[in-house]
Amino acid sequence: MxxxxxxxxxxxxxxxxxxxVSRFFNHPELLxxxxxERIARLVEGSGFRPSEVAxxxxxxxxxxxxxxxxxxxxxxxxxxxxxxxxVAADLARRGRDLLLIGLTADNLAxxxxxxxxxRKLEAVLLLNxxxxxxxxALAAAAVPTxxxxxxxxxxxxxxxxxxxxxxxxxRASAVQLIALGHRRLAWIGGRRPDDRRSQALRDVAEAAGxxxxxxxxxxxxxGWDRVLxxxxxxxxxxxxxxxxxxxxxxxxxxxRAGVAVPGTLAIAGFDGLAAGGLVHPTLTTxxxxxxxxxxxxxxxxxxxxxxxxxxxxxxxxxxxxxCPCR
Length: 326
Fold this sequence. Notes:
By secondary structure, this protein is an alpha/beta fold. The chain folds into three domains: 7-50, lambda repressor-like DNA-binding domains (434 Repressor (Amino-terminal Domain)); 64-157, Response regulator (Rossmann fold), CATH 3.40.50.2300; 166-289, Rossmann fold. It contains twelve helices and twelve strands. It has helices at residues 7-14, 18-26, 33-46, 52-58, 78-93, 108-117, 132-141, 166-178, 196-207, 223-233, 244-257, 290-301; strands at 64-70, 98-103, 121-126, 145-148, 159-164, 185-188, 212-215, 238-241, 266-271, 284-287, 311-313, 316-318. The strands form two sheets. A six-stranded parallel sheet has the order 2-1-3-4-5-11, sandwiched between helices. Helix 1 packs across helix 2 and helix 6 (108-117) runs parallel beside helix 7. The longest helix is centred in the N-terminal third of the chain and has 16 residues, at 78-93. The radius of gyration is 26 Å and the shape is elongated. 35% of the residues are buried.
């Protein structure tokens, strides 16, 4: 036998089934001595080693760490993919692997039955907001969970939060931005009226006596050009954006319109994406501690951080050319 061997190659050579070979590695006492010895000779001669992931899954998920994500509207965002990659790397260093469970309206009941009711998962990482049915299933399974940057509405008893305080992060950054002397502010892209970032900026603007104009592109093709024009018509000199992607889209609209940034309009984002440092001018942004989030989540998922406390991490304001500090 040559090349990268699989359990199926060993089974064919031994004249038996892949399940029998799996039993050789997981429960050798269940095999007849002649079968066990025949497989042992083949394994020793070929240097074959079973996959740790396959072994865990064959044992009904024993010891596996899962990541559960709601993908009904498409795959996880680039931000979530980046964070998930960091968590996977930290878990790999701890000898753990991630089982990705994507949930949609069509597969929700099946996925819950397969992964929560039939498997014994060590822990589950909640990557984004999950529907009530999934949260209830997690509560019934009593599996430890870690939620990244969102808090489950159903009050999961064994859940711990890893992330930031969105209100405090925006409030602290908004105080610094307003201290630059901007008299009129535009708030760009706030998704929900109860969003904590939106509330923080409104509170800071009100306390400072600054008018605040809320604008949203609403997803249409000319949305960002329209938002830019509305902000300038209102006399805004600073546009604070809900996220870095919104800030970069507004910056592109300013370039198209020949609007000087930061001379006519300063722009600030939220998230701390690396892309903010690749544009001109570079982006002023609230930086989330992605690497620290991933490390804390991995420690919790691997059982290295016992207890029931949350990890609320601090953000920082990274100044760039789009809104300089002087």
